[in-house]
Write a structure and sequence with these properties.
two-stranded antiparallel ribbon, 2 strands, 173 residues, 7 helices, mainly alpha, disordered C terminus
Length: 173
């Protein structure tokens, strides 16, 4: 049997079929739509590729995931929330100042990622679901893509046209 198309086209076809098969796997619960999963996994892959990352620790989310302008918004919102919480006695609830600040910054960032549609609010739950679908592999409390080429496939989907990610995949499904 002779294959047609370029190597890149054949890889894209192979990974599209892999994604289709992954969504046919039985899982305990289906809390997300196919489009959401693909959009969020593609976004994660794009960040991995852009930052030269291979392993993701959910607690290490950074404001640069939102872009430069939004990073400033995170700083502003963080400053306001931190000042309000700490000023009202939050230091007693959250413990030391350094730990209180990380907690607030982390949740502000997660909220903003959710508001922009970049990630679900319950991100670890989503990452576990993506691991059940065999896009990611859980390693302790961290996550990696099961294969570098799959990560690059998702990243290219996101980089080409982020809003087309869900259109292309819903047409395949």
């Amino acid at each position: 049997m002779q294959l047609s198309g370029t190597l890149e086209e054949r890889r894209a076809t192979l990974f599209s079929k892999y994604v289709d098969a992954a969504f046919k796997r039985r899982v305990k619960e289906v809390p997300y739509s196919r489009e959401q999963v693909i959009r969020w996994v593609a976004r994660l892959a794009a960040v991995f590729v852009r930052q030269g990352q291979t392993i993701f620790h959910p607690e290490s989310l950074q404001p640069n995931w939102l872009g430069l302008r939004s990073s400033r918004v995170v700083g502003l919102v963080y400053g306001l929330v931190y000042g309000l919480v700490y000023g009202l006695g939050g230091g007693l609830v959250f413990g030391r100042e350094k730990d209180s600040g990380f907690f607030i910054q982390h949740w502000v960032l997660r909220f903003l990622l959710w508001r922009k549609g970049f990630a679900p609010l319950r991100y670890v739950r989503f990452l576990d679901y993506a691991a059940e679908r065999v896009f990611l592999c859980k390693v302790g409390g961290s996550y990696i893509f099961i294969h570098r080429m799959l990560m690059e496939h998702f990243a290219s989907m996101y980089e080409k046209e982020p809003e087309a990610v869900s259109k292309a995949q819903s047409a395949a499904g």
